[in-house]
């Protein structure tokens, strides 16, 4: 996964990207992989969380939907509104992993 970190946009530093677990990094990579649109497709988000158990995955997707501004929900687009939202999402993911 080291080479995926090299592709990160610079503003990931604001969220302490390197302190996140590898699955969390993957989720953020997918969420921001379409940086020019500032959104990720539903497929990308689902692919990012596919390594989790179904229960945890469901929780992660719900957290992401709740904490992210849902942009064009009928087309499966999600947009994080700001850095604080992003930190909240990551905290929720961490909390889910610990349960």
Biggest sheet descriptor:
3 strands, antiparallel
Query: Could you list the spans in which at least 5 consecutive residues all have pLDDT below 50?
Result: 1-15, 69-78
Distance between the termini: 25 Å
SSE order: HHEHHEEH
Query: What is the helix content?
Result: 40-55%
Structural class of the helices, strands and pairings?
mainly alpha
How is the secondary structure organized here?
Layout: H1 2-6, H2 22-31, E1 40-41, H3 42-48, H4 54-67, E2 69-70, E3 77-79, H5 83-98
Antiparallel strand pairs: 1-3, 2-3
Helix pairs in contact: 2-3, 4-5
Any overview of this molecule?
The chain has 99 residues and is mainly alpha-helical. The protein has one domain (13-98). 53% of the residues lie in helices and 7% in strands. It has five helices and three strands, in the order ααβααββα. Strands 1-3-2 form a three-stranded antiparallel sheet. It is globular, with a radius of gyration of 12 Å.
Quick structural gist:
53% of the residues lie in helices and 7% in strands. It has helices at residues 2-6, 22-31, 42-48, 54-67, 83-98, and strands at residues 40-41, 69-70, 77-79. The chain has one domain (13-98).
């Amino acid at each position: 996964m080291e080479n995926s970190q090299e592709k990160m946009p610079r503003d990931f530093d604001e969220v302490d990207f390197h302190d996140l677990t590898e699955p969390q990094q993957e989720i953020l990579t997918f969420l921001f992989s379409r940086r020019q649109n500032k959104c990720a497709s539903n497929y990308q988000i689902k692919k990012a969380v596919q390594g989790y158990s179904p229960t945890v995955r469901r929780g992660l997707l719900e957290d992401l939907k709740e904490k992210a501004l849902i942009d064009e929900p009928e087309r499966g687009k999600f947009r994080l509104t700001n850095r604080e939202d992003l930190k909240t999402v990551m905290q929720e993911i961490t909390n889910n992993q610990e349960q």
